[in-house]
Design goal:
- Helix content is about 40%, strand content about 15%.
- With about 140 residues, it is an alpha/beta fold.
- Strand 1, helix 1 and strand 2 form a beta-alpha-beta unit.
- Helix 3 runs parallel beside helix 5.
């Protein structure tokens, strides 16, 4: 039985990627490896700023809540597809590519950002498409 890795966050493209991955896992009789990565927030400012940094437990809990919410919305438990959920600390693209090293397929949502925004900010889907060792499917949200 093969494995499909899917990256999940709380966005519409991510929800569409999860739905696509569920359907594909049914067709291929694969398991789903669902990844909700998290990292400490980065803030850029020119002014001195003192803000409390969220603690690790809060960030892990937030990632777990995101996974729970997305899986419930996708009705994954009723799909008959076997799955595991991972909430690793790290940059999403890097975590997804690492998790997909031995996978049959990597599925991620795509926001369809402008070229300038991707150049400045980077893009998880762009990173995965360029660094994954397995095939990558980029899914855009409908509408």
């Amino acid at each position: 039985m093969g494995t499909i890795v899917v990256g999940v966050d709380s966005t519409k493209p991510s929800a569409a990627a999860l739905q696509w991955a569920i359907a594909e896992a049914k067709l291929r009789n694969c398991t789903l490896d669902i990844v909700v990565s998290w990292d400490y927030p980065v803030m850029a400012t020119t002014e001195p700023l003192i803000m409390p940094q969220p603690d690790r437990d809060t960030l892990v809990h937030s990632a777990e809540l995101t996974a729970t919410r997305m899986l419930a919305d996708a009705h994954l438990d009723q799909s008959g597809v076997a799955y595991t959920v991972h909430t690793p600390e790290g940059r999403p693209g890097e975590e997804l590519v690492a998790r997909a090293m031995d996978a049959d397929l990597l599925v991620v949502g795509s926001h369809g950002s402008s070229a300038l925004k991707e150049l400045i900010l980077g893009s998880v889907s762009n990173y995965c498409a360029h660094h994954s060792t397995c095939p990558v499917v980029l899914v855009k949200a409908p509408g």
